[in-house]
Amino acid sequence: MSAFHAFQNESQVATIGDLTIENTGAQIAIHGDLTIARDKEGLRNAIALRDAVQSIVEALSGTNLPELAPEALAQNGEIKDPFS
User: Fold this and answer.
1) Which of 39, 43, 60, 68 is 20 to 30 A from 50 (CA-CA)?
2) 19-29 as b/e, with b when 16 or more CB fall inside 10 Å?
3) To 5 degrees, how large is the angle CA 57–CA 62–CA 66?
4) pTM of this prediction?
5) Residue 39 lies in a domain
6) Spatial distance between the Cα atoms of 71 and 58, rounded to a whole number of angstroms
7) Which residues are CB-contacts of 27 (< 8 A; sequence separation ≥ 6)?
8) How many angstroms separate the CA atoms of 23 and 61, rounded?
9) Comparing C-alpha atoms, which of 3, 15, 6, 23 is closest to residue 61?
10) Which residue segment(s) compose the domain that 32 sits in?
11) 3-state secondary structure of 54
12) Cα–Cα distance, 80 to 84 (Å, whole number)
């Protein structure tokens, strides 16, 4: 897996085993399965997963974040009135 850069490229997709991590604009989508066995491949997969999650944490840390992003509110059926 090449280095995953969270929130920096809307079209970047990282694959670890059958797990897919996608930059989708203001959000990261993670879906699929990942089995980590006690072997060298398992170690490589665990490190790749750690690095991807670390990239997400670093991108979110130290920024002024809202409680919920507008995209998350829209998915939950809660949309802020733009005229209020």
Assistant:
1) 68
2) bebbbeeeebe
3) 85
4) 0.76
5) yes
6) 20
7) 69, 71, 72
8) 17
9) 6
10) 13-75
11) helix
12) 8
Q: List residues bridging with 24 in a β-sheet.
A: 27
**27 near 71, Cβ under 8 Å?**
yes
Please state, in angstroms and rounded to a whole number, the distance separating the CA atoms of residues 43 and 76. Answer: 36
- Residue 32: inside a domain: yes
Burial of 63 (0-12, 13-18, 19+ CB in 10 A): exposed
2 part of a folded domain: no
The tens-digit pLDDT sequence of the chain (84 residues) is 678 899 888 888 999 999 999 998 789 999 999 999 999 999 999 999 999 999 999 999 987 888 887 765 555 555 555 565
Would you state the pLDDT for residue 74? Answer: 53
Instruction: Please count the residues of the chain.
Output: 84
- Which stretches of 2-83 are DSSP H helices? 40-60, 70-75
Q: Which amino acid is at 23?
A: N
